[in-house]
Amino acid sequence: MTSDVAYKYMVAKGIASVLVKEGVSFKFIILAAGKGTRMKSSRAKVLHEIMGRPMLAYVLDTAERLESSGIYVIVGYQSKAVQETFCDRPIKFILQHEQLGTGHAVLCAASELSGYSGDVVILCGDVPFLRPETVRGLIQQHIARKAALSVLTTIVDDPGHYGRVIKDGKGNILKIAEDKDATPDEKLICEVNTGIYCAKFPVLIDALRRAGRDNVQGEYYLTDAVHLIKEMGHRVISVITDRQDEVIMGINSMAELARAEEMMRMISDK
User: Fold this and answer.
1) CA angle, 122 then 126 then 131, to 5°
2) 4-268 has which CATH code?
3) Alpha-carbon torsion (56, 249, 195, 21), positive or negative
4) Residue ranges per domain, the chain?
5) Residue 213's pLDDT is what?
């Protein structure tokens, strides 16, 4: 049941049940397996509360209002606690036994969604300010532009540590260059990856399996799928949002959690 605080938040944001387009079927994959080491807490990151509610609850609110054909939450660290917290939600949990990166988390859904040939929307479990309208825009552009992978991006004055979006002359994405790997010219790019995607599920899984984890961290990176899908001959696009407050506000420390609490309180008081 949605709390009064959540209801006030939704009213303030203009959130209602949002139908993307009649006849369009898609599923959500929400990444919620991480520990959130920088929080310096024994509690799973997505269970940390903002105005009395776990931050994952806000993300689920958004997903549930988009009338998808299924919501799948990838759990790992403290998986039992996360599942117990949201056991009354109309969602399915998928266990990531080892935390081997964001790409691996999505790969964990392959068997559960075996035979599914439609689109998936990938969200992070720590973006509590994300609105259904923003996600709807991503899905609509993905379908209208016949993309295999659509990346929600935003333009910032200081790209900082965010992955830069590298495009060709036609505006299609070639790759995501992580800050640590970006060239000096790439570092000047101000369009950045938000970590929110819409993709044709079979194409994405194929790309992630090709990517492997032959890297320093030994992990599967979701961003590796971007250039691989392009190389496979498919279209990869960016959908730019100007709502930076929704998509790139990091909640990676107790100080940032406190800032998110203040922002949510301001919204609910309107």
Assistant:
1) 70
2) 3.90.550.10
3) positive
4) 4-268
5) 82
